[in-house]
Design goal:
The chain is built from five helices and 24 strands. It has 352 residues and is mainly β. It has two domains: 158 residues, Deoxyuridine 5'-Triphosphate Nucleotidohydrolase, Chain A (Distorted Sandwich), CATH 2.70.40; 169 residues, Distorted Sandwich (Deoxyuridine 5'-Triphosphate Nucleotidohydrolase, Chain A). Strands 2, 4, 5, 7, 9 and 11 form a six-stranded antiparallel β-sheet that branches. The longest helix has 10 residues. The chain is globular, with a radius of gyration of 20 Å.
Length: 352
């Protein structure tokens, strides 16, 4: 059937060498996506690029400043751009295509990354029946971050033949049968997907903002960094918050979100119609996210143009819902040690 692939599909693709990788780890396969991982081959580059008329590797001959070996930890300096070949390559068939997104932990650290493939006119897109290498462009914007081989910064979601998105009418009917938000039917906002609004009143701490001067963050070390070394706390103040230019904020949605086990979700890309700011970096929600009481969506917010006033309850993002090509027997949650199930205002998994 058409729709997003599920856990067992990715296992089969690896076994059949449609996804080619040497040492795949069990936790790379998610309920409706696959974590990709860094190889040791890395380059600092002069500028970003798309390789629409050649292979990525051919472009690197002119754009690479220096080659770096990620077999050992290497510090990616703030606002410098690097490109890393990923361990995984693709040999897709049967009209399978896909796209990529940063992982939640990557977005929550203000690490801007996007996927490049050969002969592609857009970032993050995997063309139908793509055969070739995958590269990841990485720019850390708030912190100096050390990376090494096998770190996972982004995810791949593959689709069989066509996307099968739910219409707003289907979403409304779904919410009547199985709530996709903690809001009442009268208060839920569905318009081109489930609308999410920002919470600036629900708890004492309403946001975190990245500090300007911090230690190096080690991406490989989980639950080991002190929050105060990297973040300032913002407490609620008249249900308003000014997003200052070039500062990075972590906020949360008012809505608790549920992704039923037969669906996948994705946060829709930045929309200038709701304000001059970027509202997220990471986009995938796996089936089972928020099952039970629901989970808040964490919002990564930044403006690069002018300061922007956010007010409590203001729409800031949307989630599209998509049918899986079959029911998944693996769902997001504690059984697969998911990091952000039933989350509140939560920083990345790297912090104590």
């Amino acid at each position: 059937m058409n729709g997003s692939l599920v856990y067992q599909d990715y296992i089969n693709l690896v076994n059949k060498n449609f996804v080619i990788t040497k040492n795949i780890r069990n936790n790379q396969i998610q309920p409706s996506s696959m974590d990709l991982s860094l190889s040791e081959e890395c380059y600092e580059i002069k500028n970003s690029f798309l390789s629409y008329n050649s292979k990525v590797r051919d472009k690197l001959k002119d754009l690479a400043i220096k080659k770096i070996n990620l077999s050992k930890e290497f510090i990616f300096k703030k606002n410098k751009t690097y490109i890393v070949k990923l361990n995984e390559s693709l040999n897709l068939k049967n009209n399978i295509f896909g796209h990529c997104n940063p992982k939640s932990s990557t977005g929550r650290l203000d690490i801007f990354c996007r996927t490049l493939v050969d002969y592609a006119e857009e970032y993050e897109k995997i063309p139908k029946n793509y055969k070739g290498e995958i590269f990841l462009e990485i720019t850390s914007r708030s912190f100096d971050v050390s990376f090494k081989k096998n770190n996972s910064l982004n995810q791949l979601r593959l689709v069989n033949k066509n996307h099968n998105y739910l219409t707003d009418k289907q979403l409304i009917n779904l919410n009547k049968k199985q709530k996709i938000s903690n809001l009442t039917r009268d208060n839920i906002k569905i318009d081109n997907g489930l609308k999410l609004s920002v919470d600036l009143a629900g708890s004492n701490i309403v946001a975190y903002v990245a500090k300007k001067h911090t230690p190096v963050l080690n991406f490989s070390k989980i639950k080991s960094h002190k929050i105060n070394d990297f973040w300032n706390v913002i407490r609620k103040n008249k249900k308003k918050l000014v997003i200052e230019k070039n500062k990075f904020y972590i906020l949360r949605s008012k809505e608790k979100v549920v992704i039923p086990s037969n669906l996948a979700g994705e946060m829709i890309p930045y929309d200038t119609g709701i304000g001059d700011f970027r509202a997220h970096y990471a986009g995938f929600f796996d089936p089972g996210f928020g099952l039970g009481k629901g989970s808040y969506a964490v919002l990564e917010v930044k403006t690069n143009e002018v300061p922007f006033l956010l007010e409590d309850g203001q729409t800031i993002a949307r989630i599209k819902y998509e049918k899986l090509n079959k029911n998944s027997n693996i769902v997001y949650g504690k059984d697969i040690k998911s990091n952000y199930q039933n989350q509140g205002l939560k920083l990345s998994k790297h912090f104590k």
